[in-house]
Amino acid sequence: xxxxxxxxxxLTDVVxxxxxxxxxxxxxxxxxxxxxxxxxxxxxxxxxxxxKSTGVRExxxxxxxxxxxxxxxxxxxxxxxEAGFDWNECPAIGLCHSHSDxxxxxxxxxxxxxxxxxxxxxxxxINFGCTGYLKLLRHATDVLERNxxxxxxxxxxxETPQNWHDAADRAFCGIVSAGATGSVLRRGPGxxxxxxxxxxxxxxxxxxxxxxxxxTESGEYPxxxxxMNTRCVMRMNGEAVFINGVxxxxxxxxxxxxxxxxxxxxxxxxxxxxxxxxxxxxxAVLRDEYPDAVYLNNLERYANSISSTIPTVLAHLDEVLAxxxxxxxxxxxxxxxxxxxxxxxxxxxxxxxGWAVLEW
Length: 360
Fold this sequence. Notes:
The longest helix has 21 residues, at 238-258. The protein has helices at residues 29-36, 47-54, 68-83, 103-116, 132-146, 170-173, 238-258, 276-289, 299-302, 309-315, 317-323, and strands spanning 3-4, 9-16, 24-28, 58-62, 92-96, 122-126, 153-159, 179-187, 191-202, 214-222, 228-236, 267-269, 294-295, 334-342, 350-359. The model has no long low-confidence stretch (mean pLDDT 96). It is α/β, with parallel strands linked by helices. The protein folds into two domains: 3-190, Peroxisomal Thiolase, Chain A, domain 1; 196-359, Thiolase/Chalcone synthase (Peroxisomal Thiolase, Chain A, domain 1, 3-Layer(aba) Sandwich), CATH 3.40.47. Strands 1, 2, 5, 6, 7, 8, 9, 12, 13, 14 and 15 form an eleven-stranded mixed beta sheet that branches. A two-stranded antiparallel ribbon has the order 3-4.
């Protein structure tokens, strides 16, 4: 297991561009209902069934003519403005961009470096799926522990699932969303990083019903924004991923809590948010075990934006708390970030698991 307890490292300046209307358009449940009936499988019955199953009312997709680079450049410029750093003085830069093809992450990193005139720092570009933000935090921790200076490590998540999902696939079309976020891990003041873990977990054949967890297929499939396009798409063994994913997120919270002194502290749990069904199952168990914790749900308006999901909640933290009638985040709050999802390196047989703990 790749679990560390960082010393002196803090997360700062969490931003997102999810509400940039020039980049993204809203895909509502009326369109998802229509899309779900374009494929070979059974579509959703009605819009109410979509909400019940997914917990989502709105999700975002790139506007026609926009690309992953446009989203990456927009969030990179916003992060630089908010945090005030020089890209070429950073010891490293992290980028997670998930896709059915690993090359898209490295190609996006190269394109972004050219546009921002980044020459010196090493960019670690990963195709990592739902636990990608935690993998970035783990990588950045290693970089800063090897480089004891005060340099900042920017972390970018850029997710454009319309490029590698079938818009008619009921397992995905109601839950996935585009998103792009930026944050900085550095030494010094900020939201103290207390734990971070990231690793792959094998799922026994019986626990996945003798089938792969995820696989890819190539062909011509409906687009979220209309029309058809030929591409390689991801498929999912939904029931097995649901059951095992919930167990891994429960395990992540338990492991994080076992290392914490929560006396006199408010504990906020900000999980990766795959779907409404998974969150309901997760929260039902956790509320019995940790009844005093606060469990945050941002699915309705922002959906599952893969590696961008957790940092999007952090970027809107006080807003999400207010929606749940909770006071704003305050100094000393402990925030647990559990996640589980596709393991791109062994997607048929493994799931990725990760978690982090921040002291606000």
